[in-house]
Amino acid sequence: MTDSKKDYQKILAxxxxxxxxxxxxxxxxxxxxxxxxxxxxxxxxxxxAACFNCWLYxxxxxxxxxxxxxxxLEYCKGCGICAEECPVDAITMIEVRPE
Amino acid sequence: MVNVxxxxxxxxxxxxxxxxxxxxMALIYRIALKALGPKTxxxxxxxxxxxxxxxxxxxxxxxxxxxxxFATTGASASGIVASLEEKGLADDIxxxxxxxxxxxxxIGIQALxxxxxxxxxxxxxxxDNEAYMNTGVQxxxxxxxxxxxxxxxxxxxxxxxxxxxxxxAHGIPYVGTANGSYPLDLxxxxxxxxxxKGAKYIHILSACPPGWGYDPKDTIKIGKLANDxxxxxxxxxxxxxxxxxxxxxxxxxxxxxxxxxxxFNTQKRFNKISQKEIEVYRKYIDDLWxxxxxxxxx
Lengths: 99, 298
Prior knowledge:
The structure holds two protein chains of two kinds.
Chain A: H1 4-12, E1 17-18, E2 32-36, H2 42-46, H3 53-57, H4 81-85, E3 91-95
Antiparallel strand pairs in A: 2-3
Chain B: H1 24-36, E1 40-44, H2 48-52, E2 58-59, E3 64-67, H3 73-87, E4 94-100, H4 101-106, H5 109-117, E5 123-128, H6 163-168, E6 174-179, H7 183-195, E7 200-205, H8 209-212, H9 219-228, E8 235-238, E9 241-244, H10 260-265, H11 275-297
Parallel strand pairs in B: 1-3, 1-4, 4-5, 5-7, 6-7
Antiparallel strand pairs in B: 6-8, 8-9
């Protein structure tokens, strides 16, 4: 006969915890990093909650919808979609190489 | 029309997933989860999306996810809905099956058809990256004509399977097509589908940088070209009524559609496409939009 309570606990042992950086620090994947020029960025310049294309199009959810928007470089994979979709070209991809 | 400030700010995916840089599916999943909210149960077959959720012990998403075998996505959704109904939670919690094009058009079509025919109250979303990308770009039923894959080295000789039409023929209350490059449209469609009772189907075109052969930064641009050339129309069919989405309306005028070559030239997988195949595409797009025009007018 099986102990149903024990079996249930076994199943519970496979419950997964939501974590940040499941694949490690994915910021190391790319040599390119996005840098926002706050003089050009629409929400930073006007102080109004508008545009936020970088936040909307980011596949990795590393951009915040704040004024000004902030990018978590620790996890940014450097795809460059934000730089491409920025309507005022405020974001440039800067090459970072170890010395 | 949804504004960028109407989109839920809370994120349901933690950064640092295993998805490739520039993956449109990661964007689609992120936006879809925002539209669906925390009271959602996902059921996911083997696909790139399984990889996104991570390895044993940890999970990247903040909603419950059931990993299910390839052929059972629809059946597992029916099972979850049945158990929720038994517990009286069915009205509160939304069940969503999220599968790739291989899991939908090829391996999972039987279970999907069964679940939809039973009238299961769930959303089935298919993110269509047009091949088995997770296992190394093999052809699927959803790969378009002339596209290179590992198993069609000279370009596929068969046309793409029209899944939205197959699902429409089941007579379900909601069928929609979406595109990762139009996240606001996508958000609105998932919100709409969540409110409707019965089986809902959303088919989403998802650009794939390594599989399609382009630079990750062009993901959004290529998805937009698929719409601008008329290759991937955005529409909804609600209770049999055909509604063309706002972003696709300009394509009704043939002169406003971009030539299909513009879409093919951006991707390495179409390097070997022949002039004859391009003619087939031109005719396909003209016929498709004539059909759409007739459906809107009738």
